[in-house]
Amino acid sequence: MAKKFNAAQFRSQLNQSINRYNQQVREYNRKVDQAINKYNQAVRQHNARVKANRQRLNSAIARLNSQASMRYSVTSSSSIRLYQSYQQLDNRYESGYLNDSYGDWIDLAEREAANSAELSNSLQAPAESSQFIGPVITSTISYELKGISEDLDNRWKGAIFSLNPHNPDAARHFCTSSREVIIQLIEMRAPDEEVRVNYPSVKFTENGKPSRRSKIEYLLHQNQREALADFTESNIEDIMILFRDFNNGTHGSAGRYSYDQLLKLKTRVEDSIKYLYNIAYN
């Protein structure tokens, strides 16, 4: 005997199915809207950060260019060259020559150029005599360095420890230790023999060793970031000029630096270590 068709029951089941479907559609649309809003918020935050960083960089360079005379003329000239190198990199990115994956690296490069210019500006005026010493200067990269080498971490801790306005040789001590950290970060990732054997475009110094530029090109090639080579070399050279300027001791009794100057020095070097770590070890 055929089962009797119940129209009311069918309509009820149909309505339930439609309601479930509509509920699923609404939930899907809600999640899509949330994703779009989250993406748009991230874009707005990124654009705001980029705008703020660009203003910071342009302001620092404008101030540096307006200096009537410069106490640290070598360091300041190097900062301007680094800015020009950043501009070339950014122009390549904005013109579409570099793909979107370079966006984060452009931001890091911009920070490097701004840090360099701000430090150069800070060094133009002699440190003011003051009893005030700000909070103890600490590090934000110890975890990364310790993961690479205990010795690197200890060298960096020693550099940070030396940064005290009461230490008449604070900057020189800091730069001496920091220089070794940066050199070793490159050497450990691009040893001489490995570069010599595995990098066909290697160029050598007068001593017969792979040049620093070749080492940088090699480690960037390993991570498919070759387009950063010019800026990275300029950035490392800017740091090395900074170290030489301090270590030469050419600024006489101005060996004492204010807390703000030491903090900017630490920021410049620490962020350059972060930059090198990100492009070579991440």
Protein architecture, described:
There is one protein chain. The protein is an all-alpha fold. The protein has one domain. Helix content is 72%, strand content 0%. It has 10 helices and no strands. The chain has helices at residues 7-65, 73-94, 103-123, 142-148, 150-162, 170-189, 192-198, 212-222, 229-247, 259-281. The chain is elongated and about 100 Å long. Mean pLDDT is 85; it is low at 250-254.
Itemize the secondary structure elements and their pairings.
Elements: H1 7-65, H2 73-94, H3 103-123, H4 142-148, H5 150-162, H6 170-189, H7 192-198, H8 212-222, H9 229-247, H10 259-281
Helix pairs in contact: 1-3, 2-3, 2-9, 3-9, 3-10, 4-5, 5-6, 6-9, 6-10, 9-10
What can be said about this structure in brief?
It is built from ten helices and no strands.
* Integer-rounded radius of gyration: 27 Å
Biggest sheet record = none
Structural class: mainly alpha
Q: Could you list the spans in which at least 5 consecutive residues all have pLDDT below 50?
A: 250-254
Domain Predicted pPIWI-associating nuclease: 146-276
InterPro entries: pP_pnuc_1
Keywords: Coiled coil
Pfam family, one: pP_pnuc_1
Salient structural properties:
single chain; 282 residues; mainly alpha; 10 helices; pP_pnuc_1; coiled coil
